[in-house]
Amino acid sequence: MNFLVIQFSILSVWKKLRNVSFIQPGGLLIIVPLLFFKRHKLLYDYQLIWKDGRITEKRILLEENGREKNIPNAPLKTKRFKHKKIIFGPIGLLSPYWQKRHTYRIIREERLKGQETLVLEALTSPSAQTKHLYGKIWVNLSDGSILKLEWKQESLENYDLIQNLARQFRAKPRITLIAEYFQEKKGLRFPSRVIIKEDYLQARNRVLRVSELIIKYKNYKFFTVETKVQYR
Questions:
Q1: Beta-sheet strands, E only, within 171-228
Q2: What is the pTM assigned to this prediction?
């Protein structure tokens, strides 16, 4: 029995705006953001394991805020936004299964980090029954590979919670969620960076940034594990 393992490192830097909250008479919750960030830095050893047609994830937390750790099966500590299986982001927009659940249009041609690309927009089709991510796709014109994805904020799973927070700020949400695929191994592209910015547009075009998450992917390794089962 064989199974494939993709191993890589994730450096996650998460910054969250510090805030204080209090409840006014009558039960109204007021959140007052302070003008500095709390920074959290995490280094994971990460594995994607394909076995018997199923894909599982394993994470070991190696370092937290400069301190060495060795925590197997560590949870993701980025509390506001989760990032899982970003490696399959293009499949979620362009596989035959998801093509039936999207409509597509060409937006423009654009030069991206020295590469000529075609920018497409994928929108959920009226017949789609399940909530899923959709947005813009940067396609490399030279080989058809996917270089970048930018998902629309309205497609996020917890967008209703974001809207509730925006109302507390008396603002409009401006969530940026980008994945870049500039790591190339054996003719395939893998994630190089993910950027998530949680902004809120207030009166007079004032932008309040509540959190920011930057994830860097590096040190990719690929190997196959062979096992033998003996019956006695």
A1: 172-180, 183-185, 188-190, 193-201, 207-226
A2: 0.81
